[in-house]
Each structure stands twice: as structure tokens, then as C-alpha cells.
Design a protein that fits this description.
Helices cover 69% and strands 0% of the residues. By secondary structure, the protein is an all-alpha fold. Helix 13 runs parallel beside helix 16 and helix 15 packs antiparallel against helix 16.
Length: 355
Amino acid sequence: MLQCNVVRCFPPNQEEEKEDFDNDEDEPNYDPSWPHLQLVYEYFLRFMESADFQPSLCKKYCDQKFVLQIMALFNSEDPRERDMLKTLLHRIYGKFLGLRSFIRKNINYIFLRYIYEGENCNGIAEFLEILGSIINGFAVPLKQEHRLFLFKVLIPLHKPRGIATYHAQLAYCIVQFVEKEPSLTEPTILGLLKLWPKTNSAKEVMLLGEFEEVLDIIEPAQFKKIIVPLFKMLAKAVSSPQFQVAERALYFWNNEYIMSLIEEHCRIVMPIMFPALYLISKDHWNQTIVALVYNVMKTFMEMNNQLFDELTLSFKAERQKEKRKEAHREEAWKKVQKRAIEASNLNINNKPNVG
């Protein structure tokens, strides 16, 4: 029944993947045949959720070919159908133990084609939702297969332009892995830092939110390992001329747990953050950012007043040294320019008259 009424081919998607797609504002494409499809899906789901359902008797029909047909339907542009398919595939994963590895493997293939071949798939968010609940049930310690999935698939999923459509689900999966096995925190953070965007401020804001989610559940021992690279990135983010990026980075100091970790390692964090914060407090164009920076600097002063004074004196001395170097450099260029002008005038005066 499901194969006859639901399994079908979709026309090729002519539109390019949109980076600025907004699930809240952009109108999705609804399938006009949905009332019929919905009836078939609900009938099949009720059948699978029935107390009398026996997976052993259905293996003949619910095989790998059937699963592939169901997974292909995730390319539907109708979010209602994808949501129903998500529930259906999750039920199949729970009922048929022999198909679990096959389902995970084929989801991996879909993700890899999406990342490296640019093949469009409308159901990335739904697949990630399914994986979020699957990851939650992984036994500890994690198998090598699951670690490879994190490093080879989930982290590279931060590369595509369309990350905005599935980032919330992706971040949840990343947090699940870190929570399951804290030793994965350092390679995960370093892997995400390598993918830090250069010119995409919206993506920067999303990644900053994801970092905060990871830091919310990080263990103190693991935090110590990623302090330097993480706060170097935060210093750059705070210095961003795009105020949303700077604002999102400064919100880290509103998180009580993160603040407790920073306070414990303030002698490492403060020297990294201080130059960026000091310059922003003097030069940034947005007054909201300046106010947030003053609050952060006040917090640092309360944490360790002596270190704060030392950093202030050191930074001012370094600035004076840089200004002297700059003045010396300008003076040297002026001398070069003066000599060039003198040499040019001398050549003009010594030029023989022709005539």
C-alpha cells in the first residue's frame, strides 16, 4: 500500500541551494496531494505502532530496498511529508534491528554527497533529528564507527552554504557526542575552529551559539585543553566590525558556568582577551558593544585586579612602543621621499639641452 501510494520520483530541483533561506519567513512548497499522502502515512504508522505488530513477519516486505525508497522521499519539498517520514524511519530503525547499520550507513552517504558533491537534499534537518535520538542511545565507550561519523561527517556538515536550514539539529548532535564522551571535546572544538568562516557573519553567529552549547556541558579538565585556541577565536569575534558577531561573542560572559571556568583560568584568558577588549572600548562604532565590553572588563577587574593593572600597563607600554616605531617608519619614508625628489631635480638640471 505504501509503495503504491507514496513512493514516487520527484522532479529535479531547478533552484540553487539558498544560503539565506529562512524557515520562518519563506513559504515552503506544499504538495497538493498531501491529504491523500497523509492518510496513507498515518495508516502505516498506526500499523507499525500497533501492539500486535510483529517485525519478524514483516521482514520480507520491510527490507533494504524499501528503506532506500523511504529515504529517497526525504527530498520532498513539503515539510509535512518530511516530518511524517522522519517519524516513520525512526519507527523502522527501532523495530528492525537488522536494518539499523544499513540506515546509518545510507544517511552517511546522503550527507557525504551533500557535502562533497553538492547534491541537494531537502531532508538534512530531518535526518539529523533522527540521528540525534540515535546518538542519545549509543553505548559508552563509543565505537570507532561512531567517532568517524563525528569527525568525517558531522563536523564537515558545517561547510555547506545551506547550514542555516539544519544548524540547530546539527549542533544538538555535536553536543550529544561531547556529552557522551568528554575526550572528544578537544578534537571537536579544534575541528570546528578550522572551519571558522572568514566573511559570513551569519554563520559566525551560529557557530558562536554552538560553541556556547558545548561549553555549557564541558568538563573543567577538557576546558583547560582548548582555552588558548578558543579564546583567540573569541578575541577575533569580539573585534568584528559586524556588531551581531561581536555581541554574540560577548554574551559568553553572561553564562554563569562559562564564567566560573574563565575565573578559574583567568591568568590564561585575560592576556588573550585584554588587547581586543581595550581597543574596542576606545574605537568601536557601536555603543551597545562598547557598553558590553566595559562590563566584561569590569568583570575581569573584579576577578584579578592586580593582573588587570599589569595588563593595562603592559598594553599601554606596547602601544607607546608601536607609536614610536610608526613615527620612526614615517620619518624614514619622508627622508627617502626627500632624497628621491632631490635626485629627480638633479637629473632635470643636468639634462643636456638639445638644439
